[in-house]
UniProtKB/TrEMBL annotation:
GO terms for biological process: mitochondrial proton-transporting ATP synthase complex assembly. Signal peptide: none annotated. This is ATP synthase mitochondrial F1 complex assembly factor 2. It is found in: Mitochondrion inner membrane. GO terms for cellular component: mitochondrial inner membrane. It is a peripheral membrane protein. Pfam families: ATP12 (PF07542).
Length: 291
């Protein structure tokens, strides 16, 4: 059955339609420099484009900056917007470069994730982020199984069990599944293994991973995407397996369903890309950004 769902839902997952970007500030280089602020909190808010050229430059400590005309991008907290490598800088600059007459801030996932990593508004440490990520394991989407109807039971087994088998072998852990509302009892050894693995991520990568986990409601599926075992499209469909099953039986509001699916794919893809780009240490050849 999933193959039918899969063919129906399969679309390009590389598009980066980001979630609502946060407010930022731009500071000019002129002697009478002043700060221009653009506040945008809702996903639907837009603003008329106020720049022509987008470029990147390397500043102090080898960090890369984003320039809109002659203005340097700053974070909502007032920090200079800097990223650790050229690859991520080009990706963020591209988000700004592809904007047309109207800036659609909700299409700037990477910009927003960078703002979060730079400002760390909740002032969390890596250990706190790791603990939050591990809590998802206790309520992981694919750990909870239904007992009825039989066709959904079979669908969950056929589609989720292979992913469970993969992650248990990949990390040499035991997770299991359960039909109980309490979920499976996750061994402490498994939690410690994942804890040690997550410690290998830098703060920026953890920011992206946490975002992917929050979209899929699954640590297991998120690891599948980050480890390139699952495509974004496949992981999203697996995270919505029960909902897709119900839709096949009862129908749906087509435009709303398609929009939600597209949004979830885009957010997941952006988070996964952010993880990989945040881990990139090499520089890439600089090139002009074009429409």
């Amino acid at each position: 059955m999933l193959q039918g769902l899969w063919r129906f839902q399969r679309q390009l997952s590389g598009a980066l339609l980001p979630f609502a970007a946060r407010s930022l500030a731009l500071e000019t280089f002129s002697p009478s420099a002043h700060v221009h602020r653009a506040n945008y909190g809702s996903a639907a808010e837009e603003r008329r484009k106020f720049y022509q050229d987008v470029s990147i430059s390397q500043g102090e400590g080898g960090l890369f900056e984003i320039n809109l005309d002659r203005k340097k991008l700053k974070t909502p907290g007032g920090k200079l917007f800097t990223v650790p490598n050229e690859a991520l800088a080009i990706a963020v600059a591209t988000e700004w470069d592809v904007q047309k007459d109207t800036l659609k801030f909700y299409t700037m996932h990477l910009t927003t994730l960078c703002n979060t990593a730079l400002d760390n508004p909740t002032q969390r440490s890596k250990d706190q982020m790791i603990s939050a990520a591990l809590k998802f394991l206790e309520t992981d989407t694919i750990c909870y199984r239904v007992e009825d109807p039989p066709r959904l039971v079979e669908l969950q087994k056929n589609e989720w069990d292979p992913v469970m088998d993969w992650i248990e072998k990949r990390y040499n852990v035991v997770i299991g599944s359960s039909t109980s509302i309490m979920g499976p009892q996750i061994p402490e050894e498994t939690k410690e293994t994942f804890h040690q693995h997550l410690k290998s991520y830098n703060f920026w990568s953890l920011t992206g991973l946490e975002y992917v986990i929050s979209q899929l409601k699954s640590l297991i599926l998120s690891f599948g995407v980050i480890d390139r075992h699952l495509t974004v499209d496949h992981a999203v469909l697996l995270s919505r397996l029960e909902e897709e099953f119900q839709i096949q039986h009862w129908g749906n509001v087509e435009w709303a369903h398609d929009y939600d699916m597209y949004e979830l794919r885009a957010r997941t893809a952006a988070g996964a890309l952010f993880v990989h780009l945040s881990s990139e240490s090499s520089t890439v050849k600089r090139k002009l950004l074009q429409d």
